[in-house]
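Morning run. Coffee first, then this:
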Amino acid sequence: MRSPSEIVKGVRQTEKGARIAVRDQYLVEVTPRANKIEIRDAVQKLFNVKVLKVNTLVCHGKWRRLSHSWGRRSDWKKAIVTLEKGQKIEVKE
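And here it is:
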């Protein structure tokens, strides 16, 4: 069993994240092997909020030029977490 801090890597601060925060949703970067139930439990324990829904997606790494050859960034997983009405996750700037 993984601890909540191992599952949730952090809250992503992006333009899309700011747009959906108005609807009580937050973008959370998670470990690629975590499932929705583990993510829900980890967010509830770490941030002391009630999670209604979790949607996940895998963002595939982009191909980038590295000097004289090509390299690929790592794949990562993000979750869109919907909270109960009026609850917030405090994000450090």
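Helices lie at 4-7, 15-21, 36-47. Good start to the day.
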